[in-house]
Amino acid sequence: MNMMTHQHSKNTSHVWRDICCALLSISLLFIQPAHAERLKDLATIQGVRNNQLIGYGLVVGLDGTGDQTPYTVQSMISMMQQMGVNLPAGTSIQMKNVASVIITGSLPAFAQPGQTLDVTVSSMGSAKSLRGGTLLMTPLKGADGQIYAMAQGNLVVGGVGASANGSQTQINHLSVGRISDGATVERSIPNTINLTDNVNLELKESDFSTASLVADAINKRFGQNTALAQDGRVIRVQAPANSSRVSFLADLEKINVAPAPTNAKIIMNARTGSVVMNQAVTLESCAVSHGNLSVVINTDPVISQPGALSSGQTISTARSQIEINKEPGKVLKLNSGANLSDVVKALNAIGATPQDLLAILQAMKAAGSLHADLEVI
């Protein structure tokens, strides 16, 4: 009897275990994972940045599409003098195959001498095309005036054009080209990431809630008091010694953080009429009246001629007819919307054009019915 009771109890425990596992599996189906992003996508390391480079140079070898600007001629004469070619004073130079250009590039963080960079070459004169040209050796300087790279090479221009007998056709842009691996780094920028005891993380978007969440995630991963949010953008992190700092930063970038919800915002492009809103936009109940008003002006000439054998003159005047057409407006009640889909349905019910929607959204914001920040670009 005791054995039967023990067996029944054992079977009952297995049944309850199976039921609990089934309920847990069902509940997991309805749990939506939180949207988390890698820390390297949310923040950057202070001091790890690109540095812009710029230079002035000459492109040669063009097929008669260069420029004749004074600074191009002066630059060409100066370059020839450096190569030992001296031209007599007053010599007129015709250079249709040379163009003055501006070279731009970006020096990445931790770049070392000998590393190659891509550069963009842009015409600064009246050159018609840079296609087929070769950039002569040009120093590239940083904001401090120091030379950090040297650029030279053949240009690749994505456009093409042709002209004959007054007819001209062109596809894409011809006055800008690119040289892959066209610059060589000559000087590296000092690395300051190992000179301090702390590493500062900078959020790409300032937000106090997200900064606090990032600090909590770092402390959970590496221990308490490892990270401290200084403000809504900067998080100070205590990093180990130089020997293991790189691996520490690699692990730091892999941390997943669910950022705080952003502010409700609507971006309006006044030039194109585009309207973009994020998920946090909400709408209170309101009434909107929308109608169109058009003014049409037609002008016809009126000529008055004098009678026969009279000394009068013909007089030409204009007569204008003005019409004002007003379409009947509609008053629509927009129900409150707690999410973005409800707001979109309510705005679609108005039937307004994108240009009209700009003014309607501004009026709804002024009335207090639209809970979002309006930004016009």
TrEMBL record:
Protein's UniProt keywords contain Signal: yes
GO molecular function: structural molecule activity
GO BP annotations, alphabetical order: bacterial-type flagellum-dependent cell motility
Superkingdom in the source lineage: Bacteria
InterPro entries: Flag_FlgI
A GO-annotated cellular component: outer membrane-bounded periplasmic space
Pfam families the UniProt entry points to: FlgI
Coiled coil: none
Subcellular location: Periplasm; Bacterial flagellum basal body
Record key words, sorted: Bacterial flagellum, Cell projection, Cilium, Flagellum, Periplasm, Signal
Known role: Assembles around the rod to form the L-ring and probably protects the motor/basal body from shearing forces during rotation.
Assigned protein family: Belongs to the FlgI family.
HAMAP family according to UniProt: FlgI (MF_00416)
Oligomer and partners: The basal body constitutes a major portion of the flagellar organelle and consists of four rings (L,P,S, and M) mounted on a central rod.
Protein name: Flagellar P-ring protein
